[in-house]
Fold these 2 entries.
Entry 1:
Amino acid sequence: MSAPVIVGYTATKPGRDALAFGARLAAASAAPLHVAIILPSEGRSVITPPDASYDRHLRAQAGEWLDAAEALLPEGTPVTRQIRAAESFAEGLIDLADEIGASHIVVGAADGGARGRHRLGSTTTELLHSSDVPVVLVPRGTRKLAADTPLGRLTVAIGTRPGADALIEETVALADATGASVRLLSLLPVDLPATADTAAIRTAGSTAASDVLAAARAELPDRLGAEVVVAEGDSIEDAVRGLDWQPGEVLLVGSSRLARPRRLFLGSTAAKMLHEVPVPMIVVPRTRTQEGEQR
C-alpha cells in the first residue's frame, strides 16, 4: 500500500476542491486518505484566553465539517478523520505528515481565485517554504470533475540544468502507483529586449533543452516511456498557454535550488507557470542521500 495522502480541509469551495482531488489521488495510488482540519492552538492567540467550552465547541464544529466532507466522497471511500490543534494550519499539516509518513499534502487555492486557476494564500505560501513532503496545489473548480476521472498523464517540468533526481523519483513512484503516462516538458521562452538576437538564443536554448530532456528521459525506466515536449513562447506564461492539458492531468515541478535540502521553495519559473496551468501542481522538495550530499 502507498503512503497516506493528507487533505488539508476547510469548509469552503477550495476545501472541497482539495478533497475531491485528494480522494482521486488516494484512490488512483491505492493510498490511505486522511482528511485533516487544523484548529488554532491555545497559544495561537494572545487576545482570547483559553476557554475549555470554546475549544469543545470548535472541535464539535470541526466534526460536523468532517461529516459533511465524508458525505461528498464516493460511497465506500475509506477515510481517516484528523482534528488537530497547531500554531498554524501549515504547521499542523506538516506535523501530521511527518507523524503518519504521508506521501502528499493536498490543499486548495486561496479565496478569490478564478475557476480553473491557482491562487496562493498564507497557508500555501507557508507550506511552500517549510514542507518536507510534496505539496499538491489544487486549482479552483477541481471538484467539478467526475470522481472517477483518472490521473491520465503526469507532465513533468524539467529545468534548464541537469539534476532533477528528486523530481524523477517522484514521477516514477506516482506513475507506477497510478498507471499514468508521462510527459517531460521543457520551457523555451524568449523574454528579451528587442535588440537581442532572439533567433540565435532560441536555437541555442532549444538544443540545451533537448539535451536536458534526453538526459531526464534516460533516467526513467523503460517500462514508462515518455512523451517529450519543448514548449516555446515569448514568456513562461505564453509557453504554458500553448500546451494542451487533459482533464485528469497533473503537473510536477521541482523545488527551487534556493530551497534547503528536504524543503520546498517555489522558484520563479514554477510561480509563473502556476498562474496559467489549469491542473493540480505537485511541488517536490529537494532531497539528499547522505548528510552534506545534496541531490
Note: The longest strand covers residues 181-189.
Entry 2:
Amino acid sequence: MFEKIRTEIFSDALKTEFKVSKEHFTRNRKQRFPLLLLFMMNFLRKSLFLEIENFTNLFKTGSNLKFSKSAFVQARKKIKPEVFDKLSQILLSEFYANNDAAIKLWKGFRLLAVDGSRITLPITDELKTIYGKTKNQSETIIIQARCSVIYDVLNNYVLDGALAALKRGERDLALSHLECCNTNDLIVYDRGYPSYDFIDQHLNRGLNYLMRVKLSFSNLIKDFEKSGKKSLIAEMYPGKNANLSDKKYTKKTPIKVRLIRVELGKGQVEILVTSLLDSKLYPVNQFKKLYFKRWRVETFYDELKNKLRIEHFSGYSNQSILQDFKAALFVSNVQTLIVSELEDDIKESNQVKKYDYKINVNVSYGLLKNRVVSLFLNKQSPEIDIVEELKLLFKSNLVPIRPNRKFERNSGKYRTRTKPKITKNQRDGV
C-alpha cells in the first residue's frame, strides 16, 4: 500500500528535487534527508528535546542517531516544505488511479469542496513581515495566515493546501487549487467565493461548479428569489462597476448559469448557482443534499486544528511553519487511506448495533504517532503488520454517530484567540 511512498522517501531523486541547495546533504551525517522527513511527519507537538528522544528511541540500540535540537533546526532549513506535497501526490495518484471500485463519486463526478480559514502563528518579526499583523477583540496583536484547502468530501482526501497572508483573497487561493482538478470534478463553494470572473475562470478550464450566493449578489439573484421558482437557466453578466481592462470578456459577455432555490425551513432560502444545466440529469430536489456534503471540508478544519493541532508548530521560521502544515496534510491522507480499508468491516458490524459507528478520529491520529515512522522507515519495515495493527486499534476505538445532532456554528472562534485552545472534550490524541 505504502511501498511507493517509502521508496520515494529514500530515493536520491526526492532529495535532489527538494533540498534547498545542491551542496546540502552531500555528506553522510546523522540528520539524513529521509530521516528528517520521517521525524517531521511524526506529530512534533511536544518540546523538540522530548520529540528527538522519542524518535531516536525508535531505532535499534547502538544506531547512534542522537542529535541535538540545534542540529535539527539547522538541518530542516535545507529542506523545501513542498516535499510533503510530492508525497501526498504519490499517495493520491495511487488511490485514484488503481482503485476504481473504492472511489466514491456523485453521478460520475469527484465531489470537491474548497474552503478557507485562519491559522494563528507564532509572533516573530519574520512572520509579521510575511503575513502581517491583526488584532483580536481585546486589541491584542496576533499573527494569522489565511489557510485554504481543496478537499474530496466523499473520499476524505486533501488534494491541495496553502497558507498565505490575509491580504490575499480566498478566491485567489481557490484558483491556485484548480491545477489539481480535471473535467470529471464538481467543485462546491460557499457564498464568499462567487463572482462573474471566478465562474469564468472555471469555465475556461472546463470545470463544473456549485456555488452558494448571497441574496444580495446581483439583481438577477434578487429577482429569482422573489419569483419563487425552484430552478431557472439564466444569463449572468459582469457587474456594472467591474474593472475589465485586463479581461478577455466585456460587460455584454453572458455566462449561462442555472439558479437553484433551496428551502431551509422557517422561511429561510438559499440560492445556488451551478454549471449543471440539465434538469433531467440533475433534478432540483438533489441540490440541497448535494450542497450539504461540502460540510465535510468544514469538519476537516476541526481535525486540522483540534486533532492534528496544526497551530502547535515545532518551529518559528516560515519554513518550519510550512513544513509542519504540509506534513500534517500528508499524514491526514495516510490516516484516510488506512481508515478507508475498514469501511466494509464497520458497515457490517453496524447492522447489529443501535447506532452506526465510525472511527474515533482523534484517537486514530494518536495511534499513528511513531507508527507512521515505522511504516515508512525502510524496505525491511513490516508494513503489513503495522497497517493491520493500526486497523485493529482503529476498530477498537469506534464512536457512535448520533443522528439529528445540531451545533451552533461560531465562525469567529479561531479569529479572536491569541493562541490555540484545546477544550476539555478535545483531549490530546498526539
Note: Residues 420-427 have pLDDT under 50 and may be disordered.
